[in-house]
Structure formats: structure tokens, C-alpha cells
């Protein structure tokens, strides 16, 4: 079972139909969907094709083994995270993105492009750069170069709530070349937001908040984990998970 996102007039779809037993496509433009439908009408491939009309980001996806997409660049990030949250897990996704977005997906700690996106995606999947695609491969040529990546979800997925990990990386990568301590304490509103979450957590669990300054509690977590002077640009996923676990141990949450 193959899922294709944004098939357009179906140049890639007809090649997929040659190999796949069943293909579902999600297309937002009714004119494109009609063109694709007409292209397979009366052919054996028609029985193997389901066309879903609508916005991919708002569509309930069917079961699929493989996802293939020449991704509309404006939905690159939402598409990746929608796929990674899909259950049951798919086998792999072969996706084309704008080159810089693709390189962010595969970046490693210490790379110039290592960022919140890199960490969030690599927590839940293995990402490989497959090939570069020149702008001259398209008519008319776009303004940017492209790349194809393969995303393979980790199975089983780590039992880390995405909202919590994303909340942490949102803070530490807000100033990726500054210290983690600065990301927490120099950015307006971060400590207030975490303290509000902490008070809510204590109320729900019916426990008394720790005495003393909440800011000092946060500072102590950063010191105890050895992360206070680290910089997000060089922190790997294990470093981030260690920090998240230490905050959770104190009842400090990010969502």
C-alpha cells in the first residue's frame, strides 16, 4: 500500500501504479485530481487508485506501508511530523524537499544545520539523504535545488511524548550557539511558563511545590546534569533526553 502526497497530474503516480498493489493519493487541487482521474480512466490502474481530495495536513490518513511525495515546500515540516505521528507505523517514506530543509533533517550535532527540526525528527526516525535533484529537472525550473530523503520510523518508537521533547528543544535551540543556561534565563517568559506548568502539575498530582525559588530549582537541574554551559548546537539527542528526564524528575514539564 502506497500513499502519495500531492500527485499533481500524476506523472509519478502512473509509475507507482506499475509497481504497487494499491495507491492512495492526497491532492488539494480539484483540477489536478480530475486530471489524474481522467488519466487512468478505463485502464487497469484505475482499480488500484484511490484519490482523496483535501488538505493533507487535515486529512485522516488510511493505512499505508510506504509514503512517496514530491512535497509542496510550504508543508514540509507539518508533513514530516504528521507522518511520524501516524499509527500504525509505516515502513518508510521517500520524500523530496527543498535542499536546505532536507539537509536539516539529516544534520548531526556540531553541523551548521543541526537544529530543533533535526533533533525532533531523529528522535523518532532514521533519516538518510538519497540524492540531489537539480532545479533543471523541472519545467519550469524552481528557484531552489531539491533533495530526496528516506525517513524510516524507529520501531518501537521511543516512549517520549513529542510535546515534551519539542517544548524542551524549542527553548534550547532558540539560541543554539548560546549556553543552555542563557536559553532558559535570558529569553523572556521561559521561567514564568515553566513555573506555571510546575504549579499545574503539583495541583493535579496533589503534591506541595518545593520550597524556595523556582528559578533556582531550574538552575540546579541545569548544573546537576552538566548542561548549563552546553550549547544546543553541539548537544546530541542523548544529552537532550538526559536533560528532559532530570526536569521531569522535579515535576517540571514543557507542555
UniProtKB/TrEMBL annotation:
Database matches in Pfam families: RrnaAD
Domain Ribosomal RNA adenine methylase transferase N-terminal: 1-155
Keyword S-adenosyl-L-methionine: yes
CDD domains attached to this UniProt entry: AdoMet_MTases
EC annotation from Swiss-Prot or TrEMBL: 2.1.1.-
Entry keywords, A to Z: Methyltransferase, RNA-binding, rRNA processing, S-adenosyl-L-methionine, Transferase
Positions that bind S-adenosyl-L-methionine: 1, 6, 27, 55, 70
Example of a GO MF term: RNA binding
Function: Specifically dimethylates two adjacent adenosines in the loop of a conserved hairpin near the 3'-end of 18S rRNA in the 40S particle.
Record-given protein name: rRNA adenine N(6)-methyltransferase
Organism the protein comes from: Pseudozyma hubeiensis (strain SY62)
